[in-house]
Amino acid sequence: MTTATMTTTKWGLDKAHSEIQFKAKHMMITNVTGGFKDYDATIETEGEDFNTTQIRFTAATASVSTGSDQRDGHLKAEDFFNVEKFPELTFVSTNVTKTGEGKYILTGDMTIRDVTKQITLDVVFEGKVVDPWGNTKYGFTLNGKLSRKEFGLIWNVVTEAGGILVSDDVKIEASVQIAKAG
Question: Which of 48, 61, 107, 119 is the most buried (most CB within 10 A)?
Fold first, then answer.
């Protein structure tokens, strides 16, 4: 009797057609959106079974970008990412659970500064298509949140009205396109 062995499939992140962002409330009335210009991910599955997904995501903290040079400078400083001491943040998946047709919960360890905490992300499979060059692409959206204070990002200011300048909760929103790595 022979047993079929699944092969590991490596996937590449199509960064030109993906966006990975974070959102935090400013003065509790609007969202500030940001991301990282320098990031990458390694993704592996057994065959094409996304229930077996293993992900390692890294971002260079010095590449943080929110559309404001002054805010970006503050985010790079010791109050937040402290990019000199902590040049990278990471997410490493630990579990994937299918919750419905094309829906998953992705659990993993997020490390920011020198703190590692488990977070969960809701994942939706958006579809599979063949691009004009014959490459099969898969699309996913990911959403979740984390407490920035749990990662040592505790800086804040109390406003005149008694509110806070930056929310503790930070939303994570991603729309990613992947293809088999060549």
Answer: 61
